[in-house]
What we know:
By secondary structure, this protein is α/β, with parallel strands linked by helices. It contains 13 helices and 10 strands. Helix 2 packs across helix 3.
Amino acid sequence: MEGLDTQARKRLDLAARAAWLYYIQGKTQDEIAGEIGISRQNVQRLVALAQTERLIKFRLDHELAGCLDLEKRLRDRFELVVCKVIPGESEHDENRTGVGIGAAEILEGFLAQKAPVTLAIGTGRALREAVRQMPAMSRPQHRIVSLIGNITRDGRASPYDVAIRLADRVEAACYPLPTPVVTDTEDERERVQQQRGYQTIRHLVDEAKAHIMGIGRVDWGSPLHADGFITESELADVMERGAVGEMRGWTFNAAGEVLSGGFLDRLTAMPLEPANSRTALVAGAGRGKVPAIRAALRGRLANALVTDEATARAVLALA
């Protein structure tokens, strides 16, 4: 399959996924169509393509076979509505390119819809890479709303803010949250949250079809501290109270319980609550993020995941 362009490669990947679901998991074409988000006729064509390209013998002859098995195990273990495991095991860069491509495919699926869609977006390096991997689109009917502020306490803008970048990429309406991630006092946070602009964004977040979020570890050198959003003493405080991960600034313990107190009482980000009817997706990979990903899935803070093979295996082993 060397020499294939990006579109041809993506189509073969999709054909492999459809073939796996059809032949290995025994799903009907209608079930596959609903799971992948395409028409039944497209499922038929993809399965036929998998046969033509000899992806199917007595086993699935494609590099995604191991990924698809991990996806199924993660879906079953954590009752996920969406799961994408991408090939690769790099630890040094947390496989951001691969995870970004996987997240971009999911974003593209939401944004390809003709009916207006509201997406709530977090921040982080993996999501910034996802936006970079997105094709340019014109989707003025959609709305992109930010889940977290983008300013440090000293006034610097976050380099990992994603909502504005994504909205610009797809020409959608953008609703950023131009507030400090953490305010100096609780009174200041209350004043910020009482502003009309904040209330508008809160309403849009509540009605969003999906929350797309990065996920971070909580330890010395973690982005939340290294990028200047919290102090060393504030980091030490949540670590002592058992924090293992954070999503949009909110820290949580190994059971997936969101913590409170300390700087969290001054956090302006939209509340982090268990996922119910909407898709709540986290994108991230790397050994350091395994406890955070496992906790987020265990506590239902996320019901969808994009990660890589090594991370998927580690999360399942830890679970």
